[in-house]
Amino acid sequence: MKSFRGFIIKEFYHIFRDKRTMLILFGMPIIQLILFGFAIRNEVNDARIAILDQSNDYMTQELTQKIASSGYFIIIDQLKPGGDIESVFKQNRVKEVIVFEPHFAQRLLRENRAAVQIIADATEPNMANMLINYTSSIIRDYQTGLRGQTGPLVQINPEVKMLYNPELKSVYLFVPGLIALLLMLVSALMTSITIAREKELGTMEILLVSPLKPVQIIIGKVIPYLFLSFVNTSTILLLARYVFGVPFNGSYGFFFFESFLFVVTALSLGIMISTIANSQQTAMMFSLAGLMLPVIILSGFIFPISSMPAALQIISNIVPAKWFLIIVKGIMLKGVGIEYLWKETLILGGMMVFLISISVKKFKIRLQ
Questions:
Q1: Is the dihedral of CA 11, 16, 18, 21 positive or negative?
Q2: Could you count the other beta carbons within 10 Å of the beta carbon of residue 314?
Q3: Measured between alpha carbons, how far is residue 45 from residues 68, 78, 294 in Å?
């Protein structure tokens, strides 16, 4: 019994001495609980919307004030009559536009009825549904409050319009998100494993004594995966288009250009992971555990980023998949080009250059 107790104590010592085991045991649950607890939200807060007020009377101003003070919305734009509503959606600036008809208060007082149009971006079907419900509820409350003031029953008719996904198919949300997730994980995982494998087997030193420079070795290992990733991209796109029926309204050339930026970014991330990992197992753990959660939670793939705390919204900006997802949905569902997606393209390009620079620099240091 004494020897058994000693054995258990020894095992405890082993666990406490291993920092990686301690990190997995205590660090991972805390990080995951904080991430899931704060990030997973079904409700919508501070959704960006715009108002097109063609009446601009006291009633439309009261309704606008009620909508702004509800906590669900942030009014970022007051559109002018005759302005292009669809362009604010294509620029990804707003998730909803509320349009008040001309002579709103006058019609409501004289005819006891008036109309308001609610236009939502349905590329995220669940969010669009919730925004429509919140807006309709606020309008109904206002309508109920008017009964005491105007006497007869008044009726405000909300006319709902869903853009880009009128049938609210959830596959329009999940397939573009899966494209970003799969390309990110497969590209980063493959690069990190292939270089870690050389280190684990001790064959990297043999490569280094060859006439090739370390940078040439890295590029030589990455290029095949770059071509294979394009085969992957084409396959995923074909499946999305012809198996799941997701429309493709944009340019194929622009889509593949953006995919190139994203894949090279992911491959560079894989190289960076390989500079930290000494074995394939560690590289896989970093690639899968370290990338899967941020891509799923902080890219806007499933949960709206605008509902998350400010700290997580800031962190989400360093997740390349967030920007690629905006680009993919913009090209496939909205049919927009570089004129609307130049900001996301620049951010993705900047991330690619940064990760390549860091990866090459760190790899040189390790190999020397």
A1: positive
A2: 10
A3: 11, 20, 21
